[in-house]
Amino acid sequence: MPSYIVVGASRGIGLEFIRQLSAKPENVVIGVIRNRNTSKDAVALEDGRPNLHLLLADITDYPALQKVAEDSTKLVGGKLDYLINNAAFQESQHNGLAIDEYPDEKTLEDDLLQSVKVNVMGVINTINAFLPLLKASAEKSTVKVVSLSSGMADTDLVVQHGVTMTVPYAISKAGLNMVIAKYASKYRGTNLGFLAISPGVVNTRQQVPTPQELQEYEAMASTFKEAYPHWTGPITPEVSVKMMLEVVERWDVKDSGAFVSHHGNKQWL
Ligand SMILES: NC(=O)c1ccc[n+]([C@@H]2O[C@H](COP(=O)([O-])OP(=O)(O)OC[C@H]3O[C@@H](n4cnc5c(N)ncnc54)[C@H](OP(=O)(O)O)[C@@H]3O)[C@@H](O)[C@H]2O)c1
Fold first, then answer.
1. Residue having the nearest C-alpha atom to atom 47 of ligand 1
2. Residue 161: CB within 6 Å of ligand 1?
3. Residue 25 CB neighbour total at 10 angstroms
4. What is the pLDDT of residues 23-51, one digit of tens each?
5. Does the beta carbon of 166 sit less than 6 angstroms from any atom of ligand 1?
6. Which CATH number is associated with domain 3-261?
7. Residues forming the active site
8. Which of 92, 147, 150 to mutate to test the pocket of ligand 1 (most atoms within 8 A of CB)?
9. CA 224, 225, 227, 232 torsion: positive or negative?
């Protein structure tokens, strides 16, 4: 009875994680969302699947995460095998700007602090809240903590291909990679493994993009095409999650602390 907690399960890649994982009746799956009213697809999925449960928390709220961990204990039989940190803040209006193009320092600071609060501190909060359940499982078998990073946090890619955009987001995901390295170093040699994984470029848009978003996307896409001439455009959440779950399954905890793509290596697209 493998148990999974997927954080940020309301939509996009997180919703697809709970869809694919709960399709196997032997899995127990908990999706962490912020609001049932705005998570209609996840709620509909929960209605039809007895092995899927939705619990509420914002990852910037540590006591709320502790409550989720407490409420999960019975559902997962006192031990958690997989934690998937998928939630992130990535919807800044300034994603297209380079680091010295912000209208003012305050705007840059606000964007950066919000990105770090959710994408770095939020992930630390989440891992710490679930550590007792993860450790209980690690006493007997392999346990995997998987955190969604981004190829945008790969310094070689950024420098070699002039990836100037998504500054606070990329910085926060680079911070997340170090968070994973720190947990990996703390739990080195145990059954508890930590992995940062990039999902590729995935189409998770729910609304028609604005002209500004379209322009930003085209600039980003042309940079990606320069780096990866074979790249044909975004993949679906279904394909991305399938590929990531395959990587997670074959990844060994002795490689804890790694930062890889949905291909299982440093090929980001
Ligand atoms: N899509 C891509 O191309 C891409 C590329 C590289 C990396 N990634 C990474 O993959 C992950 C999923 O991406 P996505 O495109 O599916 O994202 P998304 O569609 O923007 O969904 C983000 C999810 O995170 C949740 N969330 C945001 N802030 C939260 C908070 N403070 N507390 C709890 N939940 C919070 C959202 O919940 P609400 O519905 O309540 O807002 C939603 O479930 C992210 O970590 C992202 O950085 C995505």
1. 88
2. no
3. 9
4. 999 999 999 999 999 999 999 999 999 99
5. no
6. 3.40.50.720
7. 169, 173
8. 150
9. positive
